[in-house]
Amino acid sequence: MKLLVFLLLLQLCGSADCRCFCQVTGNLDDCACDVETIDHFNNDQLFPKLQNLLESDYFRFYKVNLNKPCPFWTSSSHCGLRHCAVKPCSPNEVPEGIRSPSHNKYSADANKQLEECEKEQHLGAVDVSLSDETREALLDWSKYDDEAERFCVVDDEASPDSQYVDLLLNPERFTGYKGPEAWQIWNSIYEENCFKPYTVKRPLLPDSFRSSSGGEARKFYSWLDGQCVEKRAFYRLVSGLHASINIHLSARYLLDDNWFQREWGHNVTEFRQRFDSELTAGEGPKRLRNLYFLYLIELRALAKVLPFFQQPSFHLYTGRPEEDKKHKEQLLQILQLARSFPLHFDERSLFAGDEKEAAKLKEDIRLAFLNISKIMDCVDCFKCRLWGKLQTQGLGTVLKILFSERQIEALPMSSNQRPSFQLSRQEIVSLFNAFGRISTSVRELKNFRSMLAEER
Ligand SMILES: *[C@@H]1O[C@H](CO)[C@@H](O)[C@H](O)[C@H]1NC(C)=O
Ligand SMILES: *[C@@H]1O[C@H](CO)[C@@H](O)[C@H](O)[C@H]1NC(C)=O
To answer: Is 242 among the annotated ligand-binding positions?
Structure first.
């Protein structure tokens, strides 16, 4: 039966929709799920609910520092690129509850607790009856919160350079940011941060676009197959993110730019250049599969983090109790839905080997990811930098969740102690908006699929 389907596909694969999509079907490697199940689940159920939630004030205002210098090379600024500009919010556009000094915390309650903790620390410093050990532990707690287990650099929200950005006013779309600078970013991510030796060439580098013989691609994939599942997963997450961003740029392409109007919409030619197997030496469909892989990983994290958001003390705090309550209910519905997805990726197959080896691997991956999030400060185009930072931070939060299973499960019991797992507002906003981007990409694939089918 499988063979028959395969033969049928081979015969049908003359058209462009097929060249982009015919390999994007069936089971995904390294996990027990198939593309069709994800399409149906996302497009009909999850996507509309999530889209709705992301329009709420809590999720649309993201605080970000777009002015950090690039730590790796001198970058030229693309301020002049009109479509790259990010419009920050003026203070009175941001709801009071989010703006207040407690902006990082999600509720007045939690905030009070925190102040008390700080007071305790302060007391600890003068109360000689506290042992040195306890005092240090108290200090360490707050440091731990900030640093340990982070997969991503989090901007200092208190820095005067950090600004609120209204994500709905600054959509991710085609900006004209292309060419050598954009390539440098992705190149340093793949070449210097994906565990790949320089001797193994990535398939489809821009200069080898036409001349690539197929031999290099074979060498690359045999290298990748030889990697442990974790490093393979890491590469695929990065590639999936890259694919997702390219889908948005093709779906929100600047089609018309003149005196009267500026029109953004789908550009099928652009999409094909990035994903048609004939135009990409077979790479396009693989990238789309990696997008689905990324989707599964993020979905799994949402399913797992439910107990954190279920805590009665958690609020989507904007200072308007009625709305906050309604949005929290919506949020919990979405997480329940994520939980109900039948074919979850099982991350216990990751980091499951020898304990010491697994810890080392996890650390390698954490450091590589941390570095990638710093590279985002080198993206010249501000709008791309905004969405790049948001999406890497979201993915960093996903990894943090996946590797904190025990701590999250311990949450309901830890009500009187210091919570075993925390997420800052910035992490929460980036987590859901990043997943929103991936979910949008999967939905957009449906549009491109039918547009390509019409072209036949
Ligand atoms: C971080 O990324 C930069 C830029 O790609 C690279 O030069 C550097 O070696 C990386 N550092 C680590 C620790 O991976
Ligand atoms: C679509 O994208 C291609 C590049 O891939 C470009 O040459 C073309 O002008 C675009 N079409 C429109 C209508 O903007």
So the answer is: yes
Paired with 264 in beta bridges are 254
Helix (H, G, I), strand (E, B) or coil at 62: strand
CB 255 less than 6 A from any atom of ligand 2: yes
Q: Which residues does residue 263 pair with via DSSP β-bridges, in sequence order?
A: 256
Q: Has 280 been labeled as part of a binding site?
A: no
Which residue out of 181, 191, 193, 234 has the highest number of ligand 1 atoms within 8 Å of its CB and is therefore the one to mutate? Answer: 193
Task: State the average pLDDT for the chain.
Answer: 74
Has this prediction a pTM greater than 0.85? Answer: no
Q: Where are the domains of the chain?
A: 22-99+143-455
Q: Which residue, judged by its Cα, is nearest atom 9 of ligand 1? A: 192
The tokens for 4 are 């028959």
pLDDT tens, 23-82? 666 666 655 567 888 899 999 999 999 999 999 988 988 888 887 888 887 766 544 455
Q: Is the CB of 5 under 6 A from ligand 2?
A: no
What's the pLDDT band for 127 if we cut at 50, 70, 90? very low
Among 20, 84, 152, 381, which one carries the catalytic annotation? Answer: 381
Ligand with an atom nearest the CA of residue 263: 2
Half-sphere exposure of 368 (CA within 13 A, CB side): 23
Catalytic site residue 384? yes
Helical H runs in 153-263?
179-193, 215-226, 229-251
Q: What is the spatial distance between Cα 94 and Cα 386, in angstroms, rounded to a whole number?
A: 18
The reply, when asked if residue 199 is annotated as ligand binding, is: no
Q: Which residue has the higher pLDDT, 406 or 151?
A: 406
- Higher per-residue pLDDT: 349 or 291: 291
- Spatial CB neighbours of 288, under 8 Å, sequence gap ≥ 6: 20, 21, 24, 243, 275, 445
User: Phi, psi at residue 8, to the nearest 5°?
Assistant: -60, -45
Residue 364 has pLDDT above 90, yes or no: no
Among the atoms of ligand 1, which is closest to the Cα of residue 192? 5
